[in-house]
Every structure is written in structure tokens, then in C-alpha cells.
Specification:
Layout lengths: L22 H5 L1 H17 L3 E3 L9 E6 L12 E13 L4 E7 L6 E8 L1 E7 L5 E7 H14 L4 H4 L6 E2 H23 L2
Bound molecules: zinc ion (ZN).
């Protein structure tokens, strides 16, 4: 396992759609090693998730995990380690929530955007088993953010540009308000 360099906004790989993984590829040592590297790299960078194109691999694979208190996103509820291969996501209901996001590939910036409050996500796990799950609240936001990456979409594309802030200014002007909103989302959706 190794920690990879994370590419940042401006690198064209973040703007391309990653391609689907075949069952044979998924079983290969190379792809299994890439999955291990994504898990390790996310952990080292304290992200909530990481998509393969963020390390320059154009395959539809992303990982998500929140353990304990994440220093970047202390309001997030735990997410068990999830490896998504070929994920497909769709809204589960009409409700939207406003979430303040950041991204390891967009260093220094956060901003508000609207996410679906509940989503259905179907994917293969790293062993090729089919998964079909509903995610809610802040966790639903994390899954939408990661699948967006695999489609070449960054949170700044969806954010209200007038809410973009450096992390310092977020701390100063937005954190208290957003953490209150985040608590309300967790109270309503459980995650
Ligand atoms: Zn991101």
C-alpha cells in the first residue's frame, strides 16, 4: 500500500469521466492495489472520500470513510469503509439540503451547494458483490461528491460562487452557522 499524490483542480483528469471496471479488472492485483492505495491516501489526507481520478487513474472506483471525529469535517457522522466500483446514484425523494463542502483536489476552498437529502447508490464492492443502499443527509452528500468526481464534476461547479470561502474565512464567518445546519441535518436524517 502506498500514499499517492492527489491531483488538484486544473488537472484535466478531474474533468474526465472515469471508465467502468470489468469483473476481470476488478479481480486483478493492479486494481486491488489501487483500491488499497485509495484507502490509504484518503486516510493520510483526512478526506471523507477519494475517487480514483483524484490520483490520476481513470477508473470508476471511489472510497468513503469517516472514523471518529474527522478534523476537516468534525460534524460528519461515521461512514464505514466503503469501496464503490462502478457506482450509480439516483435521488431517493425530492428533498434537498444545503451542505458546505470542501475537496482534497480543491485545496483552500469551501462553499455551499445543494445536495439530494437521500440517494440510492448501487455499486460493486471490491469483491464484486452487488450493493444497493440508501444514504441520507451529510452521508448522502459525501456519496454524491465522490460519484461526481467519477463524472468529472467538482463541488465548485455546483456551489453558489458567492459562498466560496478559504478555510480560514469559513472558520471565521461560516463554521458556526454551518455546524448548526449540520446538526439539524443529522437530527433529521440520522447521518
Ligand atoms: Zn472531492
Amino acid at each position: 500500500m502506498s500514499v499517492c499524490d492527489i491531483v488538484t483542480i486544473g488537472d484535466p483528469v478531474l474533468r474526465e469521466r472515469a471508465r467502468g471496471v470489468t469483473p476481470e479488472e476488478l479481480r486483478s492485483p493492479e486494481v486491488q492495489e489501487l483500491i488499497d492505495d485509495l484507502i490509504e491516501t484518503r486516510r493520510a489526507a483526512n478526506g471523507a472520500g477519494l475517487a480514483a481520478n483524484q490520483v490520476g487513474e481513470m477508473l470508476r472506483i471511489a472510497v468513503a470513510q469517516v472514523q471518529g471525529i474527522n478534523p476537516r469535517y468534525p460534524y460528519k457522522q461515521p461512514i464505514p469503509l466503503t469501496v464503490m466500483v462502478n457506482p450509480a446514484i439516483e435521488p431517493a425523494g425530492e428533498e434537498m439540503v444545503a451542505i458546505n463542502e470542501g475537496c482534497l483536489s480543491v485545496p483552500g476552498l469551501r462553499g455551499y451547494l445543494e445536495r439530494h437529502a437521500k440517494v440510492r447508490v448501487r455499486y460493486l464492492d471490491r469483491d464484486g458483490n452487488e450493493r444497493d443502499e440508501v444514504k441520507s443527509g451529510l452521508t448522502a452528500g459525501t456519496f454524491q461528491h465522490e460519484v461526481d468526481h467519477l463524472d468529472g464534476v467538482l463541488f465548485v461547479d455546483r456551489a453558489d460562487p458567492r459562498t466560496l470561502a478559504t478555510w480560514d474565512e469559513y472558520e471565521r464567518h461560516q463554521r458556526a452557522e454551518f455546524e448548526e445546519r449540520a446538526r439539524a441535518i443529522v437530527a433529521r436524517y440520522g447521518s
